[in-house]
Amino acid sequence: MKNIKRTLGIMLVCVVALAMTPAVSFANFGAQQVSKDGNWSYLADYSNSTCKVIQWKGSSATLAIPAKIDGLKVVEVDFCYQCGSHTNSNIDNRDMITAISIPSTVKTLDDYCFNNLTNLQSAVIPNTVTKLGSGMFSACHSLKEFTFPSRFTAVPDSMFSGCTSLEKITLHSGVTAIGSSTFRSCSSLKSIKLPSKLKFIGAECFRESGLESISIPNSVKDMHYGSNFMDCANMKTVKLSTGMTVLPGSCFKGCTSLETVTIPSCYKEIKFNAFAECSALTTVVCQGNTILNTYEAAVTPSANVTIYGPKTKTMVNVPNYCNEKGVRFVPLNPPTMTSRVRSASSATLQWKKVSGATGYKVYEKVGNGSYRAVMTMGPNATSYSCNGLNKGTAYRFYVTTLKTDALGATIESGRGSIYITYLK
């Protein structure tokens, strides 16, 4: 009898102890246990006294993430935990949220963690955060401006995709990469200043955005698979990077307000559909020996389009392309040499004027050295004299034609005939 009473007493103590323990529930998040404290659900890491927030059941306008839950430091936020989609089903009353507050304890913001907060108007990421996921603010339709944290050098993929009210984005000078679809469909974003150290722009990065102009820094070396500015219907002016040799396909396809584009001499090839369906495009200025891809139209065939470029052997594909597509090609010819005069220590080159030229450039090569530009002359120049030449040395010269368009871009022809003089 005493043993029975003792057993009943132990059971009663256990029941009381359980009743006094904080409530713990397990949501349907798979095999991993999910703990709950008030409006918050989290995954605990008791070995480090930290946790990851995965669900909020509140109903206030500010989503204020706590620094601690049940005595555990909040170090990670993942509101898309096992959602199976990017709709933030782990946040209740999403449409009520206009602001978020992130404590300095948080180190990681996972993929799409604040996505689809359609009335979110402001957000600040503390500099204590060390990892940013992709798509973090995608489809936050009311977000108007954002300053990218200074500690990160890469803007994640799709970070602001579908932020249709985004008007201002500030990127610090240390940003070197912008991911794919990062600003896609940001229809209110009319301008952006790209950092001078930027090297990479992802595919479809600014597709369907509201950009009216873009100046791509010369530091940019890679624009991934293309379509970077596709369907930017308000895009009127474009300045390409001089750090690239190939312009990717569909890069500016569907930019229906683009009228003129200048392709720097560093570009060796313009890929398929790069300027296709640019219905307002009338002028393409090729400053060098650029090859327009002929497999699919780099420029949509139109009688209204004129391509200007140097007439050289290595640019033979451009006239062929124009003949094939019915596009007008206007070559820039080098000047024709008329006479060459040599004296004991000087040489003079004379040439005929080229119609439409805005200048000429003279190149010189001494001995086995390389050609270098020695003089740029005006449109009326027809001769150049070089004095102080040394006996026993071979000198080579050639002249090119320059033409500056209405936007200030200069085309240079290929080299004309070479004048060689050897002073004995």
Describe the structure.
There is one protein chain. The protein has 424 residues and is mostly beta strands. Helix content is 7%, strand content 29%. The protein contains 2 helices and 31 strands. Strands 1, 2, 3, 5, 6, 8 and 9 form a 7-stranded mixed sheet that branches. The model is unreliable at 1-31 (pLDDT under 50).
Topology:
Elements: H1 2-20, E1 35-37, E2 40-45, E3 50-56, E4 62-64, E5 68-69, E6 72-77, E7 99-101, E8 108-109, E9 131-132, E10 145-147, E11 154-155, E12 168-170, E13 177-178, E14 200-201, E15 213-215, E16 237-239, E17 246-247, E18 260-263, E19 269-270, E20 283-286, E21 291-292, E22 306-310, H2 317-325, E23 328-332, E24 337-342, E25 347-351, E26 359-366, E27 372-377, E28 383-386, E29 394-404, E30 410-412, E31 419-422
Parallel strand pairs: 3-6, 4-7, 6-8, 8-9, 10-12, 11-13, 13-14, 15-16, 17-19, 18-20, 19-21, 20-22, 22-23
Antiparallel strand pairs: 1-2, 2-3, 5-6, 24-25, 25-28, 26-27, 26-29, 29-30, 29-31
Report Rg.
33 Å
Count the DSSP helices: 2
Largest sheet features: 7 strands, mixed
Shape: elongated
Task: Estimate the helix proportion, in percent.
Answer: under 10%
Q: Kindly state the number of beta strands.
A: 31
Let me know the average pLDDT. 85
What percentage of the residues does DSSP assign to strands (E)?
Answer: 25-35%
Distance between the termini: 132 Å
Query: How does the helix and strand content classify structurally?
Result: mainly beta
Poorly predicted regions are: 1-31
